[in-house]
Write a structure and sequence with these properties.
single chain; mainly alpha; two-stranded antiparallel ribbon; 4 strands; globular
């Protein structure tokens, strides 16, 4: 701990690793606000190393979860990438995948009141659209820069789902800051034990 102004994020890159993250204070503030990025990291199926406190942080993120900020992020991200889809006669497959991923996360957050992990988003996409999603993912796996002609029925589906997400009434949730402060205190104490 220090009273100096220091960076509240962690960033490290070399030939083998690309590591990003937040210090515990910043991470807990983001959890309090139900931030998309911190929820995505906490629900990632890829775990390289995990400290004891991460389970508590994950549990607190689930308790503090509010769909509204997640849905707003998904709308913004899907809209940005859908504009790229509409701009060209040949569409980068990855743009379609990014749009569908954002829409499915937004729909899942709305329908289940939690951040999806693993492949849970398959439960919210139309069966035909999910099959197309898998097909597009396979194309991208074979060629990262693959392009295809626009898929009109997919564009119509995207427009319809974006309109639905935009129509969702925002939800407000007041989280207990005392629980977040307590976890911060416990984490700092635990880290201090390892330092001494």
């Amino acid at each position: 701990l220090t009273i100096d102004e220091t960076a509240d994020f962690i960033e490290y890159k070399d030939d083998h690793y690309d590591i990003t993250g937040f210090d515990i204070s910043k991470a807990l503030k983001l959890i309090y606000k139900s931030n998309y990025t911190i929820n995505e990291w906490l629900h990632s199926p890829l775990i390289y190393h995990e400290e004891k406190c991460v389970e508590k942080v994950h549990d607190l993120a689930c308790e503090c979860f509010c769909p509204t900020p997640i849905i707003k992020h998904c709308i913004d991200d899907a809209t940005k990438n859908f504009k790229k889809v509409l701009r060209f006669d040949n569409v980068l497959v990855k743009h379609y995948l990014q749009v569908l991923r954002s829409i499915s996360i937004g729909l899942y957050a709305d329908g289940f009141g939690e951040f999806p992990y693993g492949d849970k988003t398959r439960y919210v996409l139309d069966r035909e659209i999910y099959a197309l999603f898998l097909e597009l993912a396979d194309i991208k796996r074979r060629d990262r820069n693959a392009r295809i002609e626009p898929i009109i029925y997919l564009n119509d589906y995207i427009i319809s789902e974006l309109e639905y997400l935009v129509s969702i009434k925002p939800e407000t949730k007041i989280n207990d800051i005392n629980k977040i402060n307590q976890l911060f205190y416990e984490t700092v104490l635990e880290a201090n034990k390892h330092e001494t």
